[in-house]
TrEMBL record:
Gene3D superfamilies linked to this entry: 3.40.50.2300, GPCR, family 3, nine cysteines domain
Swiss-Prot/TrEMBL keywords: Cell membrane, G-protein coupled receptor, Glycoprotein, Membrane, Receptor, Signal, Transducer, Transmembrane, Transmembrane helix
GO molecular function, one term: G protein-coupled receptor activity
Signal peptide range: 1-22
Pfam families: 7tm_3 (PF00003), ANF_receptor (PF01094)
Species, as recorded: Esox lucius (Northern pike)
Entry GO CC: plasma membrane
Recorded superkingdom: Eukaryota
Residue span, G-protein coupled receptors family 3 profile domain: 593-857
Topology within the bilayer: Multi-pass membrane protein
Subcellular location: Cell membrane
Chain ranges passing through the membrane: 592-619, 631-651, 663-687, 708-729, 749-775, 787-807, 819-842
Name the record gives this protein: G-protein coupled receptors family 3 profile domain-containing protein
Length: 862
């Protein structure tokens, strides 16, 4: 590559600072490690493009003597991690799968160069140096061992150290498990990308989870790691923004001393918090829960951070089940099945001559089977373990390496390799003149520069075979999607990670979805645990803040002894601790009274319609034609309106209904009384017309009758119009301190206008009664004076009784009184004026003749 000489010079300088200088050599300087310095174990395979890999296959490094009085010995890594070894083998599996794919990268073979970073920053940095400047086998005086991309590391701490180094050379680094939010800073880590979401999204998910269940008193226990502490600090800040208080904030020391762990558990117990988030790595959580078991701390709902949500070391031993059953936590999305992976893993065997050379495989084999591979490639010294027999098989062992039921980080490794492969495919398929570089040039795959691959890797976007979209945002982060897992006891006595919800950052406001009915809480409970510093204050008390405590902690003190009187439209609650709005009451269609009045009104309308039908069918008979049949039909029509206008008084009062009910009532009743007045005048004038020398009947013919009715009704229309213009009726609430109800009625607006409407009706009714009384003894059978007199007596009696009843009736009963008066007077008019005629028409048709109607009544001389 073009820049290999420059990079080799820089790398050699860095290694000179890191490694012990050797004795001067006569040979010229080559691109190799300093003489006398041991190279790190490496797993590699040649290829057209080599992918670097960093995996923490060991959990710790044994500290060496750094006195420098003698040549420092090589560092020694210990505690082999089976889970990380599976991740490393997944990288090999993905590369092998890509190489066998004839469509993805045809004519390009991927190789790899993988180192063990031993969970130590200096080890990871040295491995990165070797990836940048190691010597390729078969080459001299060149640095062809440099890789254009690195997959790894897992820990955020290690990835930060590696990213600072690789960023100098713009070598792309794709991490599969480093979730620190600081790595999203492109100004500091320009070439870093990852297939795991940032901790910032995990913090958002945890905050929403705590909000969802109403927990306001939460503890946090965090591992002593720079980036774990950073994540826990962000969580504390964000959770307090939503009114949640921190019960405690404890740090697990790196050396896990017994006294420190006992102190942490004691503070958890004394805090009173029933919900505690543990933001730590697996080995920290093991130390914590060992102490929790020893002290017998139960009843705590543990929230897991993504780093240990599916930790095999915690979920497998049955001793942790009593305290961790019911735990909740977020984990990166799981791939249910990766075809061929388990077979690939179980095929490993260091005693098989066909197995590729792997310096880590013997260590893995001895760890799994507890035997020694004497003389095998890299085997341990015999004497401490029995020799391996060669009959050991991985399929006969159940451990975290062969467990592919929770492919989460494993799937991230798989996606990282495929992201690089698709970036290489985009480079290979680049057409000249359509590239992304100056002059639209395309990279040369034979001399591919890391910065060129980085440009394509940033913009990679594709859907894999399992339906997941692989792409990076401007910060190099993937889409944040988590599963909410619940630790439940399975039928086989083992822990099962049951998915009870999801969190998707791309879903806008409703990012968190939880199936609460599927959750089993701590100690096998089915009810949501309560975690508050202070319970809600009972009625009659108020919150009093505790000095030197968070706002979630308060005491409940009794209110002042004096009472505060509620406003008229309010009513005190049962505990007399607050004023609530009074319930609104009115004459509704649902009340028994309302239903009764509605039924009576509709029945009256039906009776009126029946009379109209009878009169229409017998319109040619003398009894209908007598005394102006047109006037009779108009009177029946106005009576029907009187019955129907009563319906406007029932139901919730509104501005329109209040105006309609009073104006409709006033106009329809004036129309009705005007018709009765017209009939009375006709009867009276008809008798006077029989007297000699009288010609007054000409003034009361049908046109004149219509004019009288129109003028009388028009006067009421004018009164109602002025009423609506000046002070229309409006809804009003009637409240008293003694009642818990607010009565909604129609206020008349102007008492004067309301009085004029009623007074005008009364005036017409009185005039009609007077004229009917004067004509009551007319001798003709056809005169209606007595019937009109009877109807007007009923009408006047009803409305005279209405006035005091209306004034004295409270609330909605005044409305009911008005409706009753309307219906009673309407029924009186209908019965007195038309019932006798219907009787003759239907039952005594022999009297429905002109002869009978014109006959003189025989006076009683007795």
């Amino acid at each position: 590559m073009k820049s290999s000489g420059f990079l080799c010079g820089i790398v050699l300088c860095l290694e000179l600072l890191y490694l012990v200088p050797a004795e001067p050599q006569p040979e010229p300087l080559q691109c190799s490690l300093i003489a006398g310095a041991s190279a790190l174990p490496v797993l590699q395979r040649t290829g057209d493009v080599k992918l670097g890999g960093l995996f923490s296959l060991h959990d710790m490094v044994l500290e060496a003597d750094l006195s420098f009085t003698s040549k420092p010995v090589s560092t020694h890594c210990s505690r082999f991690n089976l889970r990380t070894y599976r991740w490393m083998q997944t990288m090999l599996f993905a590369i092998d799968e890509i190489n066998r794919n004839d469509h993805l990268l045809p004519n390009i073979t991927l190789g790899y160069k993988i180192y063990d970073s031993c969970s130590a920053s200096f080890h990871a940095l040295r491995a990165s140096m070797e990836l940048m400047g190691g010597v390729e086998e078969g080459w001299e005086r060149s640095c062809r061992g440099m890789v254009p991309v690195v997959i790894g590391d897992g820990s955020s701490t290690l990835s930060v150290a590696v990213a600072r180094f690789l960023g100098v050379f713009h070598v792309p680094q794709v991490s599969y498990f480093s979730s620190s939010s600081s790595l999203s800073n492109k100004a500091e880590f320009p070439s870093f990308l990852r297939t795991i979401p940032s901790d910032m999204f995990q913090v958002n998910a945890l905050v929403q989870l705590i909000q969802h269940f109403g927990w306001t008193w939460v503890g946090v226990v965090v591992g002593d790691d720079t980036y774990l502490l950073e994540g826990a600090q962000i969580f504390s800040e964000e959770v307090q923004k939503v009114s949640v208080c921190m019960a405690l904030h404890e740090i697990i020391p790196r050396n896990h001393t017994a006294g420190a762990m006992a102190s942490i558990v004691a503070r958890i117990r004394s805090s009173g918090s029933r919900v505690v988030l543990v933001f730590a790595l697996e080995h920290d959580t093991v130390a914590l829960f060992d102490e929790v078991l020893q002290q017998g701390l139960i009843g705590v709902q543990w929230l897991t951070s993504e780093a240990w949500t599916t930790a095999f070391v915690l979920s497998t031993p049955s001793r942790f089940l009593p305290i961790l059953q019911g735990s909740l936590g977020f984990a990166i999305r799981r791939l249910v099945h990766l075809p061929g992976l388990q077979e690939f893993l179980l095929h490993l065997n260091p005693l098989n001559p066909d197995t590729p050379k792997d310096p880590f495989l013997p260590i893995f084999w001895e760890e799994v089977f507890g035997c020694s591979l004497q003389g095998a490639q890299g085997g341990s010294v015999p004497g401490f373990k029995p020799l391996c027999t060669g009959s050991e098989k991985l399929e006969n062992v159940r451990n975290i390496f062969s467990d592919v039921s929770q492919l989460r980080v494993t799937y991230n490794v798989y996606k990282a390799v495929y992201a690089v492969a698709h970036a290489l495919q985009a480079i290979k398929n680049c057409e000249k003149g359509r590239g992304t570089f100056p002059l639209q040039n395309c990279p040369d795959t034979d001399s591919l520069q890391p910065w060129q691959l980085l440009q394509y890797l940033k913009h990679v976007e594709f859907f894999n075979l399992y339906g997941d979209e692989i792409k990076f945002d401007k910060n190099g982060d993937p889409a944040a999607v988590y599963d909410l897992l619940n630790w439940q006891l399975g039928a086989n006595g083992q822990v099962e990670f049951v998915t009870v919800g999801t969190y998707d950052e791309s879903l806008g406001t409703k990012k968190l979805h939880i199936q609460e009915e599927d959750i089993i809480w701590n100690r096998n409970q089915t009810t949501i645990p309560v975690s508050v510093c202070s319970n809600s204050c009972p009625p009659g008390t108020r919150k009093a803040h505790r000095p030197h405590f968070p706002v979630c902690c308060f005491d409940c003190v009794v209110y002042a002894t004096e009472c505060v009187r509620c406003l008229p439209e309010f009513w005190s609650n049962e505990g007399r601790t607050a004023c609530n709005h009074k319930e609104v009451d009115f004459l509704s269609y649902g009340d028994i009274m309302g239903i009764t009045l509605l039924t009576v009104a509709l029945l009256g309308s039906l009776c009126t319609a029946t009379v109209i039908l009878i009169f229409a069918c017998h319109c040619a008979t003398p009894i209908v034609r007598a005394n102006n049949s047109e006037l009779s039909f108009l009177l029946l029509f106005s009576l029907a309106l009187c019955f129907l206008c009563s319906l406007t008084f029932i139901g919730r009062p509104s501005e329109w209904s209040c105006m309609l009910r009073h104006t409709a009532f006033g106009i329809t009743f004036v129309l009705c009384i005007s018709c009765v007045l017209g009939k009375t005048l006709v009867v009276l004038m008809a008798f006077r017309a029989t007297l000699p020398g009288t010609n007054s009947i000409k003034w009361f013919r049908p046109p004149q009758q219509r004019a009288i009715i129109t003028l009388c009704t028009l006067a009421q229309v004018v009164i109602c119009s002025v009423w609506l213009a000046v002070a229309p009726p409006t809804p009003r609430r009637l409240t008293t301190h003694e009642s818990d109800l607010a009565i909604l009625v129609c206020d008349e607006g102007s008492a004067l206008c309301f009085s004029l409407v009623l007074g005008y009706i009364g005036l017409l009714a009185s005039l009609c009664l007077l004229l009917a009384f004067l004509a009551r003894k007319l001798p003709d059978n056809f005169n209606e004076a007595r019937l009109i007199t009877c109807s007007m007596l009923i009408f006047c009696a009803v409305w005279v009784a209405f006035v005091p009843a209306y004034i004295s009736s409270p609330g909605k009963y005044s409305t009911a009184t008005e409706v009753f008066a309307i219906l009673a007077s309407s029924y009186g008019l209908l019965a007195c004026l038309f019932l006798p005629k219907c009787y003759i028409i239907l039952l005594r048709p022999e009297k429905n003749t002109r002869t009978h109607l014109m006959a003189k009544s025989v006076p009683d001389n007795s």
